[in-house]
Amino acid sequence: MKRIPGSIKLVVITFYCLAGLFALIQTDAFAKDASTQQGKAQQLSKLDNATCLGCHELSNGSLHVSGAKSESGQPHGISQEKFVKSVHNEMQCVTCHKEITDASSPHKLGPGPKPDCVACHLELWETAKKENLTNEKARLGVVVRNVETYKNSFHARPNADDKTRVNAACDDCHNTHIFSVPPQGTTRRTDWHLTIPMVCGENCHADQLEEYAESIHGKNVLEMRNLKAADCTDCHTSHSITSTLKNTFKLSITENCGTCHTENLDTYRDTYHGQVNKLGYGYTAKCYDCHGSHGILSPSDPKSKVHPNNRLKTCQKCHKEATQGFVTFSPHANTSSFERYPQVWIVSRFMWSLLAGVFIFFWLHTGLWWYREAQDRKARKVHPERRKESK
């Protein structure tokens, strides 16, 4: 038998030593990895917030979806930084997501109910009442009142195209995970309030938002960030939204407009339109019949419905036989503005002067008559008619 050279033996021995060392390293790594996986499995089995955010945290770079799910099936992403500052920060995810029973991806849903904001808040409020904590949880009471008004609103009705869902649920307007409405009077509250038109318009009322953005109200809110300018909730309210076809809405809209335009509301009430509206009839002209609803423009804007060039056409929506004489009608005329209504101002001043002159004349005449009577008595003059009576 041929003898193997020593150099080859050395190479073979070295190879086997390295292979054994590599196997030991791999075995140790596998054990550590198994231990890590076991630890993760134990952690996942807890289904606590830390476990949930391990997958759903937006900052980990794997999630980019703000809705419940995208078309690709990506799960909902949550900002932990914002969540811990919200009113829900002390709640566990599975308190609302009772249908989730494991940490697999995708989740194997159990028989538990899906999240229900309305039922959850009503249950919490009932508990607060039983424990006499209504004062301490006054904000929860506000939420419950909003829930009650919402339940009777147009948004709470079944959708015409899909009866399995309502027109708008809580999470269509509010971010349910980081829900946090800032306190009134704060800068954050102002910033939040100015986002309302985008919340209403971007997902549901796109056409109305487009009109509103070009209106005098929309430019003040979206561009000038004027908190006093009207947004969606100023006219439609926030939770008790009703159908615009209902008589109750038609009657209330003038009052809603009047909260800002008080002088115009007072002058409108003096007109035939306003008097009939005040009696409870919604068929007469209201603010939006003349000015528009979402696309309200300044009267000086050539596109405005109440611009002199368009006013007759606006009147003809109700008064089919209206002629050019209709445009001379001033629905908000008042006696205090010479710049806007000079004829009305002049006539009113003339009437006041005439009325005052008449009263002054007769008061002066009566005063002089009494003075003459006093002087005659002092001089002991006897009037002829009195002398005849004495005989």
Helix content: 40-55%
pLDDT average, as an integer? Answer: 82
Instruction: Please describe the biggest sheet, giving its number of strands, its sense, and whether it closes into a barrel.
Output: none
Determine the strand fraction and express it as a percent band: under 5%
Distance between the termini: 187 Å
Order of helices and strands: HHHHHHHHHHHHHHHHHHH
Question: Which spans of ≥5 residues are poorly predicted at pLDDT below 50?
Answer: 34-44, 64-73
Radius of gyration, whole Å: 39 Å
Name the overall outline. Answer: elongated
Which structural class do you get from the secondary structure elements? Answer: mainly alpha
Tally of individual helices: 19
State the total count of DSSP E strands: 0
